[in-house]
Amino acid sequence: MKESKAVKIFLWVSFAMFMLYILSLTIPLYYMILNSFKTNGDYVDNRWGLPSVFTLQSFAKAFTMRAGETTLPMMLLNSVLLSVGATVISVTSISVTAYTLARFRFTGRNLLVVVAISAMAFPSLGGGAATYKLMVNLGLVNTWGILLMFGGPFGFSFLIMYAYFKGVSKTYAEAARLDGAGEFLIFFRIILPMTKAALGVIIFMGIVGSWNDYYTPYMYLPEMKTLATGLQAFSITASTTGAYTQMFAAMIIGTAPMVILFVCMHKTIINNTVTGGLKG
What we know:
CATH topology: MetI-like fold
CATH superfamily: MetI-like
Strand content: under 5%
Radius of gyration: 24 Å
Helix content: 55-70%
Order of helices and strands: HHHEEHHHHHHHHHH
Number of helices: 13
Shape: globular
Largest sheet: 2 strands, antiparallel
Structural class: mainly alpha
C-alpha cells in the first residue's frame, strides 16, 4: 500500500514537472504570436497585454523586410530548396544503404554496420574545418552543390531504416524473384512501401532538421540566406529600428510550414510501426 502511494506521488510530481516544462515552452510562443498582431506603438506601450486593435500590418511589412539583398519570400524559397533537396538526397542514401546492409550478405557487411553505429559517437562539427576547406576547393560554397553534404548514409535515421528492413519478412522478396522481379523492382515496389511509417518519420526529421539548420547556410550559403540565417539578421535590424512586431510576424511565417507539415504527418509519426510485413 505504501509503495502504491509512493508511486502515485512520484507520477503526480513528474506530471507537474512536465506541465511546468510545457508551460515554459508556450510562454515565448504566446509572446511572439500576441505581439505579431500589434502595431509598434502597442508593442512599446504594453508588451504582454492584448493589443488595442488586432492588425495584420506587421505580416504585410514582414514580406518587405530584407537581410542584405534577400527578402523574406526569397528566404522561404531558399529554405524550401534546402529542406527538400537535402531530405531527398539524405533519405535516398540512407534507404539504399540500410536495405543493402540489412538484406544482403557480403564481406565487410558487419564492419560497415559497426562503423555506422560508431559514427554517431563522434560530433559532426569535429570535421567542420576539413569539410569547409573541401567545399571551397570544389567551388561549391554559395551554390546548391552543398546538398552533396547531406549524402552521408549513416546516423540515427539509418538505424531506424535498418531495423525496419531487418523486420520485413524475406518471403516477399523471394516470391517476387520467382515471378521474375529484379532487385530494383523488389526494393522500390515491394519492400520500401512496407516501411512507409519509418520512411515518413525520417522524411519529417530530415525536413525539420534542414529547415531549422543554421550552421550549414551560415557557413556555406552566406549570400543565399534561408529563414534560419535571415531571421537572425532581422533580429539585429529590429534591435536598431524597433521593428519587433514585423520580426515576430516573420517568425510565425517561417514556423507555419513546419506546423502544417506536422499536422499532416502526425499520424505517421505517432503510428511508427511496420504494417503489412511479417517478422523475418
